[in-house]
TrEMBL record:
Keyword Oxidoreductase annotated: yes
GO molecular function: heme binding; iron ion binding; monooxygenase activity; oxidoreductase activity, acting on paired donors, with incorporation or reduction of molecular oxygen
Organism phylogeny: Bacteria, Bacillati, Actinomycetota, Actinomycetes, Kitasatosporales
Family per record: Belongs to the cytochrome P450 family.
Pfam families (alphabetical): p450
Protein's recorded name: Cytochrome
Top-level taxon of the source organism: Bacteria
CDD domains in the record: CYP107-like (cd11029)
UniProt KW keywords: Heme, Iron, Metal-binding, Monooxygenase, Oxidoreductase
C-alpha cells in the first residue's frame, strides 16, 4: 500500500480484475489483506469469526509492530472500533443516543443555519482572493466540525487544532516521531476537555459520556472515554468533510447530473448516496482480524492477519454495479458499503447524510454556476490510503 495515498480507483480496478481479495504489504513491511469486492466485503464485515480487538492482531501481540507505526492507533485505540461482543455493545449503547434519528433530525435547523453562515464565508473568501476560494477549508470542513464540536460541547476555538491532529492521525505517510507526537497531543487535548467537563458538566455529549451508566452501573473508563472522543471527532468530521468535497468535485465534473438535481428530477440525498458509492470518503479502513484461518472469495487469510476494508474498491466493483460501475449516475438505486455493514455500521451515518445533503443543496442553490478553479488533474490528494479526497478544493462560487 502506498503510504502517500493517491487516487485509488485505477489500482482498485487492476486488483479487482484479478480477485475480490488481495494480499497487500502495509507500511513498515507488515503483511496484510485488502477485501475489495462488494459481496466479499459484505460477507467479511458480517462474519462471526472476524474480530476488531487488537488482541487478535498476531504481529502486534508478537511484538513486531513498533510504537511509531502509522496505523498503530487504528489497532490500539480503546473504543467502539476496536471492541467486540459485549464490550462493543456496551460502548455503542453509551454513544448511540446522541446519533438517534430523533436527535439527528433535531439538528437539522442548526445544520441549515450553519450552512448559510459558511456560504457567506465562502463568498467573502472568494471576493478577497480574486474570485477563488478553497471550498474544503471554508465550507466542507467547518460544517461537520462545527456540528460535532457543538454536540461535544467543545469551544469553537479548538476546532482548527482538533482537525490538524485528526488529519495527522488518519495520515499513513508520517514518520514514527510525528505519529507519536500527534497521538500524544490529541490524547492530552481530549484529556483536558474531559477534565473540564468533570469539573463543570454541561448539556453536551462529553458530560453525558462521563455520567453515563448502564443498568449494572458500568461506565466508560478513562481510556475508553478518550478513545470514544477520538472516534467521534475523527470519524464525525473527516468522513463528512471528504464526502462533501468528493460530491462537489463529482457534480462539477458531471453537469448533466447537477441539472437533474436542479430540475427536481433527482433529489440531493441521491447525490449523496451515489458519491458514497462512486468516490467513498474512506478508501481502506483498518483493521479486522480473522480469529481462525478463513477462506474468502477463494483466498486464504491466516488467523491474526490485519485486513483492510476496501470501501472505494467495493463501490466500483463491476460484479455488483454492472459494466457502468465507473459512471457517476445519481439515478441508480443506492447500493454501497461505504458506511459499513453489520454490527460496526457507522453510528453517525444519518448525521453525515443529512449534513451532506443540506450542504450540497445550499451550495448549488446559492452558487448555481460554481465550478472548480483548477483542472481535476491539478488537485493534490490526501497523504493517506485511509481517507479518500483532496487536500484543497479551489472553486469559483458564482451564479
Amino acid at each position: 500500500m502506498d503510504p502517500h495515498g493517491g487516487c485509488p480507483h485505477a489500482d482498485n480496478a487492476r486488483l479487482l480484475a484479478r480477485s475480490a481479495v488481495a494480499e497487500v504489504v502495509l507500511p513498515g513491511g507488515v503483511p496484510g489483506v485488502a477485501v475489495l469486492g462488494h459481496e466479499a466485503l459484505k460477507e467479511f464485515l458480517s462474519r462471526p469469526d472476524v474480530a476488531k480487538g487488537a488482541a487478535h492482531f498476531a504481529a502486534l501481540t508478537e511484538g513486531r509492530i513498533p510504537d511509531g507505526w502509522p496505523l498503530r492507533t487504528f489497532a490500539t485505540v480503546q473504543g467502539m472500533t476496536t471492541a467486540d461482543g459485549d464490550d462493543h455493545r456496551r460502548l455503542r449503547s453509551l454513544v448511540s443516543g446522541a446519533f438517534s434519528p430523533r436527535r439527528v433530525e433535531a439538528l437539522r435547523p442548526r445544520v441549515a443555519s450553519l450552512t448559510g453562515e459558511l456560504l457567506d464565508d465562502l463568498a467573502a473568501a472568494a471576493q478577497a482572493h480574486g474570485g477563488v476560494a478553497d471550498l474544503r477549508a471554508h465550507f466542507a470542513l467547518p460544517l461537520p466540525m462545527g456540528v460535532i464540536c457543538e454536540l461535544l460541547g467543545v469551544d469553537p476555538a479548538h476546532q482548527g487544532r482538533l482537525h490538524g491532529l485528526s488529519n495527522q492521525i488518519v495520515s499513513t505517510s508520517l514518520g514514527p516521531a510525528e505519529v507519536l507526537a500527534a497521538n500524544q497531543e490529541m490524547a492530552a487535548v481530549l484529556g483536558d476537555l474531559a477534565a473540564a467537563r468533570y469539573e463543570q458538566p454541561g448539556d453536551d455529549l462529553i458530560s453525558a459520556l462521563i455520567a453515563a451508566r448502564e443498568e449494572d452501573g458500568d461506565r466508560l473508563d478513562g481510556q475508553e472515554l478518550i478513545g470514544t472522543l477520538l472516534l467521534v471527532i475523527v470519524a464525525g468530521h473527516e468522513t463528512t468533510l471528504n464526502l462533501i468535497t468528493n460530491a462537489v468535485r463529482a457534480l462539477c465534473a458531471h453537469r448533466d447530473q447537477l441539472r437533474l438535481l436542479r430540475s427536481g428530477e433527482a433529489d440531493w440525498p441521491a447525490a449523496v448516496e451515489e458519491t458514497l458509492r462512486w468516490d467513498s470518503p474512506v478508501s481502506f479502513f483498518p483493521f479486522r482480524y480473522p480469529t481462525r484461518d478463513i477462506t474468502l472469495a477463494g483466498t486464504r487469510i491466516p488467523r491474526g492477519t490485519p485486513v483492510l476494508a476496501g470501501y472505494s474498491a467495493a463501490g466500483r466493483d463491476p460484479a455488483a454495479h454492472g459494466p457502468g460501475a465507473d459512471l457517476f449516475d445519481i439515478t441508480r438505486p443506492a447500493r454501497h458499503l461505504s458506511l459499513g455493514h453489520g454490527a460496526h455500521f457507522c453510528l453517525g451515518a444519518g448525521l453525515a447524510r443529512m449534513e451532506a445533503a443540506i450542504a450540497l443543496e445550499g451550495l448549488f442553490t446559492r452558487f448555481p454556476d460554481l465550478d472548480l478553479a483548477v483542472p481535476e488533474s491539478a488537485l493534490v490528494r490526501q497523504p493517506s490510503f485511509v481517507g479518500n479526497s483532496v487536500r484543497e478544493l479551489p472553486v469559483r462560487p458564482t451564479g
